[in-house]
Amino acid sequence: MSYHKIFLALNSLFIIFLCNSYGQELLINEVESSNTKYFDEDQDSPDWIEIYNPGADTINLEEYFISDKVDNPSKWKFPKTSIAPNDYLVLFASDKDRDFILQYRSLIVEGDEFSYLIPNQAVDQNWTSLSFDDESWLKGNSGFGYGDGDDATEIPEGISSIFIRKKFTLENNESIHSLLLHIDYDDAFVAYINGAPIARANIEGYPPSYDQYSITDHEAVLYNDGIPEVFSIGFLSDFLREGENVLAIQGHNISANSSDFSLIPFLTAGFTSSNNSGIEAVDLFSLENSNLHTNFKISSGGESVYLYNKDTILIDSLQIPALETNISYGLNPITGSYDFYESPTPSAANNTESFQGQSLANIEFNHESGLVEQIALSMITEGDKTIRYTLDASIPNEDSEIYTQPISI
Asked: What is the pLDDT of residues 102-118, one digit of tens each?
């Protein structure tokens, strides 16, 4: 007997059927073709493919291949990388074609000393440039703020803004691939490197006036053990310099009556080769490694992927069905079948609840989504399918109520 798990959204629904080959050197263990939860080093969420080594020996993947075209086995070549026994390697199928793993270095971290100014009049328009003389500004360690208990440099309550600057040094700019600004802020900011604007949030104007307030409230997160928002910075060659650079940020409050204010920036660079700029990346952001990226994507409508050894001999392949967003397709380690997973596990064993199939059949409702006073909700679906539902916002399972008649809501 098979059961159905049903997920209701505003205007869409899908049903997943609940159910219940090892012996080769490498396996395509899990894939996801419509991902919004797992992010790469650019803070994008591409498709991904997980390779698993079920054997007892470490396997060097150098010059192995993976492809989405059976007539082009050498479409994407692995770099020098290995998979240990009973371990996993995740490839982002992003079409970005990166055969290197980035090495991250922190250029600016929490607690670093900045020059800062709490202005009571317009600030020199060149204050964001490297050549600006900030010797007359105050010195203080980040974070800057009041009211949250994590303020290394406390500033007066009710200020409209604070301007901060810190210089940092870069070596071998040719190996810089990416730059990330993690910033904990309450309530708005604009950030610059060498005078070029690189990120902003919740503030209007180019540049905003020193006495401007944030257009909306934004709560800091570090003091509650959260991870600060991240901004991926592009066009690096347009403004980064070999040697000395400067990060400048103006932080803005929501109002003169605001109960708290925070500004804590982190700047991290990803290098394609060994680099001594900054310090080892802080653990807070889990940036020890980036991922490899293939030169193709996976169609959410379904397609096949093929894994070849260095002699272009096929060692595994997987026909991927059409997948809903954030549903993966992977090898069930107990049954040996490929199942559907609503809780994907990239870089880990497929040990969450799995389903043998999914139905993308349409469900018709007798009412549109939205706010209602009272309705009797009817549902019609194709074929002989059982719909189970809940009324308490929990996810239905095989023990949930079976739909047999209109539901009073």
From this structure: 888 999 999 999 999 99
